[in-house]
Amino acid sequence: MTTKITRRDLLQDAGLISLGLGITPSAAAAATTLGADHKPYPPTRTGLRGSHPGSFEGAHAYARDGLPHPKPQSLDESFDLVIVGAGISGLAAAYYYQKRFGPDRKILILDNHDDFGGHAKRNEFHQGGRLQLAIGGTHNLEYWQFSETVSALMQTLGINIPKLRQQTDFNYGRNGAKGQAIWFDAETYGVNQLVTGCSLKGPPSTSPLPYLDQFPISTTAKTQLRAFYQRQTDVLADLSSAERGDYLHTTGYFDFLESKGGLGTEARQLFKTACHGSWGLETECLSVAEALDDGLPGLNLIGEAAAESDWDYPVGIFPDGNASIARLLVQRLIPSIAPGVTADTIATTDFDYSQLDRPQNAVQIRLQSTVINVEHQEGAVRLTYLFGGKAFALTAKRCVMACYHSVIPYICPTLPAAQKAAQRYQVKYPLLLTNVLIRSRAPFTQLGIDGAACPGRLHSALFLMNGVETGGYAQASDDPGPVPVTFWGSLSPPDGIENFWDKLRASRTRMLNLTLEDYEREVRSVLQDLLGPAGFSAKRDILAITVNRWPHGYSHEYLDLWDEDWPKGEAPHEIARQRFGNITFANADAGASAYTHTAIEEAARAVAEFDAPSLD
Ligand SMILES: Cc1cc2nc3c(=O)[nH]c(=O)nc-3n(C[C@H](O)[C@H](O)[C@H](O)COP(=O)(O)OP(=O)(O)OC[C@H]3O[C@@H](n4cnc5c(N)ncnc54)[C@H](O)[C@@H]3O)c2cc1C
């Protein structure tokens, strides 16, 4: 089970080089993966990605832990605008700045990662001469929530949502011939058991009620669950409409399951990690209203019924997720990186990373550059960043902070205390996305599934990543060849932590402390035990593993149980994003909403704020 991937397995193609086994994670991170033309090409790197080794240690040591800054070398470069963070918000800010102030304005974008896109990253695998794409972070476009600003940018980038929809036959593991599935593992439940046709969180047609006998749990827990699913009542019937709303928003979902649903600890635990992917949180952190809204069961106890159509989630998606949006933005800013690319070819077009940081271009993107200090000065902004273990300083006229907000107080110590407190408040929700390339989807097909919830495991769900034939990519859902399996979720903090923020920090620490071998052992063991009965061999059939850790994941969206209902203008994100001299603040955090469209809107706002007279 724990057999490691051999060099032979790895030597499939030039693109798939380092899984990091047999070499230390830092050596794996340092290894430069080369594209077909021998230029550095980060999307093909495997092993620990997302917050990869080398991307966060500088910020932790110098910014967070207060290590004295090394003396910076002053650079003789001058920019109109420096942007901290090459995520979608930072890239969009560069686009809006050029649009507003002219295409010749010199812009530098700094990011601590070895690839651009922030959360919107792609994982590439190359097997048998074929490109296999997987999502490394940000998944999809919730286009029905787009504002005019966002729709206009999508149009500029040539993104046609109806066409994306037409080219997509993918439903997050819900398309298996036997429907959805729950996989109970022997380590947690004493026996490996796949139950098909039902889900823990889904439309009425997937209710687990007819399948409870197959669940490897105690008779008591089964009896409780049966009664819970069967009951049709309104336990809040005595309450006024206001009291009802109050109850649903101030009561924890797990308390509701216990007190109104009659579920004991064992039965409740089934739902413990069910919201890891959608929220990045333990289900116990959600109110009744939030959990029901996320599709968890219980509407039948408050006199309501779930509708099948609530589960139609018709997103726009590329095979590498919103990395395609980041790539389209970068190409617009630096056309020579991929001349002539369009939204119809974006997923399969090579990007020439050597074009990213060239002084002759109006926009330069400098990777592996961690900003550790930003100071507003008279008519300018002075920045210090780390690159290759050395510190460099430069001056620009203006700065957009498009990084996540909780790091900003450490980088901009001269901000007003209230603004820094508001930024510190915005702790993000951790997410984990591990892509495993397997030799064939055949074992999934044989079992009649294309994904499963895994309530006992580190990742709470997994699904096959195929059927997204957008951006010029072709990988049909019945393609018999190699295919990525995406393990999706967050990481539970240790039990017994009460404080919500402490839970998030503990989960984040755990995510960074687990080694590549830990993650590898986990996904090998799950795939072997789940698919083994259908002829799968982890030793033979796993071709590559890429673990995308996002300890600073979803933006802190306000929660019923933990956040106040602030008056307009007084919420932490509204205080955190206030302009400070020549510095403005973007990022999805600035909208307290973990979406790509928010990241874009906040970029537009942050740039528009430069229209107002400078505060200095
Ligand atoms: C796994 C995952 C799945 C998601 N799925 C979806 C989805 O399906 N749909 C959706 O709309 N949204 C999704 N999101 C939310 C996602 O956060 C946003 O959509 C969007 O990508 C955020 O962009 P951003 O530019 O605001 O932030 P980020 O992508 O976080 O970019 C900020 C960048 O700043 C960098 N930075 C931080 N500190 C420094 C420093 N000191 N110096 C230099 N650089 C720094 C960061 O490392 C990062 O690269 C998902 C997020 C994650 C993590």
Q: What does this protein look like?
A:
Strand 11 and strand 12 form a beta hairpin. It is built from 22 helices and 19 strands. The protein is globular and about 70 Å long. Strands 2, 3, 10, 11, 12, 13 and 19 form a 7-stranded mixed beta sheet that branches. 29% of the residues lie in helices and 19% in strands. It is α/β, with parallel strands linked by helices and 616 residues long. It binds flavin-adenine dinucleotide. Flavin-adenine dinucleotide binds next to helix 4, strand 11, strand 14, strand 18 and helix 22.
List strands and helices in order, with pairings.
Elements: H1 7-10, H2 25-30, E1 47-50, H3 57-64, E2 73-84, H4 88-101, E3 107-110, E4 122-127, E5 130-135, E6 140-141, H5 148-156, H6 161-166, E7 181-184, H7 186-189, E8 193-196, H8 219-230, H9 241-250, H10 253-259, H11 265-269, H12 276-279, H13 288-293, E9 316-317, H14 323-333, E10 363-366, E11 370-377, E12 380-387, E13 390-401, H15 408-411, H16 417-425, E14 429-438, H17 442-447, E15 451-453, E16 461-464, E17 483-489, H18 500-513, H19 516-531, H20 538-541, E18 542-554, H21 572-576, E19 583-585, H22 596-608
Parallel strand pairs: 1-18, 2-3, 2-13, 3-10, 13-19
Antiparallel strand pairs: 4-5, 6-9, 7-8, 11-12, 12-13, 14-17, 14-18, 15-16, 16-17
The structure holds flavin-adenine dinucleotide (FAD).
Residues 59, 84-90, 110-113, 118-120, 137-140, 142, 322, 370-371, 402-404, 407, 411, 431, 433, 550, 553-554, 587-588, 594-596, 599 line the site of flavin-adenine dinucleotide.
